[in-house]
Amino acid sequence: MFASEYILEIAYLIATALFVLSLKWLSSPVTARRGVLAGEIGMLLAVAGTLLHKGIVDYTWIASALVLGTIIGVPLGRVAMTAVPQRTALSHAFGALCVTLVGTAEFYLRAPNVPKFMMSVLSLEVILGALTFTGSLMAAGKLQEVLPQRPITYKGQNFVNLGLLAVSVGIAVMLVLHPEKMMLFPLMIGIPLVFGVMMIIPIGGADMPTVISLLNSYAGLSAAAMGFVLGNKLLIVAGALDGASGFILSVNMSKAMNRSFTNVLFGAFGQEQVSVAGKTEARPVRSASPEEAAGILAAASKVVIVPGYGMAVAQAQHKVRELYDALSKRGVDVKFGIHPVAGRMPGHMNVLLAEADIPYDRLLEMEDINGDFPQTDVALIIGANDVTNPAAREDQSSPIYGMPILDVDKARTVMVIKRSMGAGFAGIENPLYYLDKTLMLFGDAKNFVGSIVRELSGGHG
Amino acid sequence: MQLDLITGLYVFLLAAFIGFEVIRRVSPLLHTPLMSLTNALDAIAVVGAIILAGEGKSMLAKILGTIAIVAATSNIVGGFIITDRMLKMFKASGPRKP
Predict the structure, then answer these.
(1) Taking 90 as the threshold, does the pLDDT of residue A114 lie above it?
(2) Would you call A282 an interface residue with chain B, using a CB distance cutoff of 8 Å?
(3) How many domains does chain A have?
């Protein structure tokens, strides 16, 4: 090895350590920003080291690409917090695009003499990369609402999808055995590109947290495969970390959605939308005005607010923060109960509430808050539905039976801010609304919370 | 530099184990920043693209490598910026220090 190669390997080694530390420091909000810094330094070292690589003869294209990438990247880093899920999906697409293009170039540089192992990892790299690329673009389009969010299903969908996947794997095997059949290579990219689109078509908005996590995992694995192709250990490590992270989040999300993991692995979510909404008889509910709600909240000593995606849609998080302030000032203990799938990606709700300046130690995960509900005076539900449905716990015939929920029905009083009596995304009746202890607060989340806040501050002065 | 299969698999296996153990400890509070950070780190794939574009062994490699650098760089820059922006917003409540 030349001296410059040693320098490069050492730069990669340090970057590897910094990447692991970066994720380790992310474990707590106190050290998390140090983690970002570690990641940045590692990245800088690795890129700088690579630029010194002796084989590089021309820097003009590299330099312009780095500048252009930065010009695109800065606005993508400055999107609104509500747009983070689609930004994340888009960045999975970019990552997968990079991996697929590099894989393609490597194939044509090496073909037709590609060793079997090399061809296997190369196939894995481009198949995963290509399906992640179109799949993520589709997911981003659905999240940005430029594509219909409604799941589109047709007969034999799973058969078509698995068939496409099987054909691309078949082509990969052919290429491993006969790498000189170079005309097969474009097919091995084209079919997974189609598969990526088909995979996301049957998926509705509520399943997005699982899908994004899964695509995250695929993007990581394809990058790790690229590390094998290039013989780059740093890339293998980064890809494995990303793959592991996406995998853990997918498992978390599928548990929270009560879907089996095989269901998720094969992308067969958004299925079984059993329609039980047929027999909706008009049962009486109790409703309340903002004044009444404010009175009950002011008299409470412990309040748990349960926000759902509806709160973010209504842009109500800043009003919710005012409510938190007004109640805290009166000595009411206010906490937030966050279901893992509240929001459009894992942890999204926490970011939206943190943006509204709600302290993170007030945000409690489902397992941590559920024990508190029996001692809670008021559970206030804003824009959440299915994650509070007691049928998931009690009614074995319910489609969401077994899904972990927030036990809001154990609080002394339950208040639900909701536009109307319509059912949730799965079309499932929520018996919570018909309990004697439940008060329905009909209206737009932002306006309703605003009125409660006005009542609270008016009554105070 | 060529990497043999077994060494590569060792590296992958160990990194995956470390990944599981470290990431399991990340609070669900920070799962969104976790995803944007791993995304930025994953864009280290840019080093492969830089070598492709820089060595210029074929016109195809040069063009694909250059596009790949653009895609990965936008992930690096955007990913780090948004992760830091999100983490900056997470504040503990007033005087109580953990």
Answers:
(1) no
(2) no
(3) 2
If asked whether residues A256 and A216 sit together in one domain, one would say yes
CB atoms within 10 A of CB A187: 14
pTM: 0.90
ipTM of the complex: 0.93
Last residue of a domain, one of A265, A299, A324: A265
Report yes or no: A354 at the B interface, CB cutoff 8 Å.
yes
Which range marks the domain in which residue A309 is found?
285-460
Chain A residues whose CB is inside 8 A of the B6 CB are: none
Question: A226 vs B49: CB contact, 8 Å cut-off?
Answer: no
Which position among A207, A372, A386, A407 bears the catalytic label?
A386
pLDDT tens by residue, A394-447: 888 877 888 899 999 999 999 999 887 765 555 677 889 889 899 999 989 999
Active-site residue A395, yes or no? no
Both A243 and A333 in one domain: the answer is: no
